[in-house]
Amino acid sequence: MDGSSKEALMEEAPPRYTASPRLPCIPHQLKCLLIVVVVVVVLVVVIVAFLLLGLHITETHAETVLRMTIHGLDGEGTPQHLSMSKKERTGTFAVRDGLNASAMVVYDYSKLLVGYRSWRHRACYITHMDEDNIPGLDAITETFQRRQAETKEAGDNTVPLADRSILGTTVNILCSTVPVYWA
C-alpha cells in the first residue's frame, strides 16, 4: 500500500453519529402522558381480567357446592340433589318416592317449616321444625310418606290448610296447585 492513501484517509474526518431525530410535532410532556395512559389502561385490563377469572372460578365453585350430590349412608341408591337459596333461606331436595317417582322436600329456615310434595299424589304436607333440632332428610321423608299413607287410608275427611300466608315463597309455589295438610 502506498503512503498517500493512508494520508488521504487520515485527512478525512470521521463520520459524525448523532442521536435519532425527535418528532417535532409531539412535545416531551405529551409523550410522557401517553406512556402513563397506556400503562394505566394495560394495568386496568389485567386487573379486570383477573377479577373476571376469579368471579368465574367462584361461580363455578358455588354451583358445584349447590348442586352437590348426597348419597345414602351406605353409599348406594340414587343420588339426591340439593338446591339452596340464601335469599329465602331454603334448602330444596329432590328425593325418591317409591319406584319411578320423586318428591320435593323444602326446608324453610326463615319460617321454620318443612314442606313435602310428592308428584304421584295430589297433596302437599308441611310440619314445623325446631331451630335447634332440625330433622334429617330420611326422617322427614319417612314422616311425610307415613302421613301421606294415613291420609290415603282415611279418605278425604282431613281439612286442608286454609291460610297459606304462613308458608314461605318456595313452599307456596311448590304447593300452589294442590291442597296443603299438616303432617
Keywords:
183 residues; alpha+beta; 7-stranded mixed sheet; 39% helix
Overview of the molecule:
With 183 residues, the protein is of the alpha+beta class. It has 4 helices and 7 strands, in the order ααββββββααβ. It has helices at residues 3-11, 28-66, 137-154, 169-174, and strands at 69-70, 80-85, 90-96, 102-108, 113-118, 124-128, 180-182. Strand 5 and strand 6 (124-128) form a beta hairpin. The protein is rod-shaped, with a radius of gyration of 38 Å.
Strands, count: 7
Task: Give the percentage of residues in beta strands.
Answer: 15-25%
Structural class: alpha+beta
* Element order: H for helix, E for strand: HHEEEEEEHHE
Q: Helix content range of the residues, please?
A: 25-40%
| Shape designation | rod-shaped
